[in-house]
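Field log, afternoon session.

UNIT: design team B
ACTIVITY: writing a sequence onto a fixed backbone
BACKBONE:
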């Protein structure tokens, strides 16, 4: 089992910045990717950014150039630096981790942290 704990959400004005962090604990061996999803009210959960153990990153088009995902090493938290925030970035942000278990990876989720961008 893997436990994920997010922090860093809050209320910010348009154009402001926030940094989210996600700490993994438990059986963290064989985690291959970690990332962030978000869910706005009335909408489906959508991917925001991911980072692999090798450091490869992927971003949603809507956040490219504004958000940066980073991680020091396999035992370090994953961070999401969010700059130039817009009201449409508002939502609950969930950390996820994919861990190889048997023949296929298993996805774990954190509880989520609220991000509200006010205009």
């Amino acid at each position: 089992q893997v436990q994920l704990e997010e922090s860093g959400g809050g209320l910010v004005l348009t154009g402001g910045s926030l940094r989210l962090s996600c700490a993994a604990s438990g059986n963290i061996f064989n985690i291959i990717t970690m990332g962030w999803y978000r869910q706005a009210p009335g909408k489906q959960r959508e991917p925001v950014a991911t980072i692999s153990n090798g450091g490869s990153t992927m971003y949603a088009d809507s956040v490219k150039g504004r958000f940066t995902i980073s991680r020091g090493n396999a035992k370090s938290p994953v961070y999401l630096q969010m700059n130039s925030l817009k009201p449409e970035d508002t939502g609950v942000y969930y950390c996820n981790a994919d861990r190889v278990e048997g023949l296929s990876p298993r996805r774990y989720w954190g509880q989520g942290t609220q991000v509200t961008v006010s205009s």
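LOG NOTE: The first strand starts at residue 2 and ends at 7.
NEXT ACTIVITY: expression trials, pending approval
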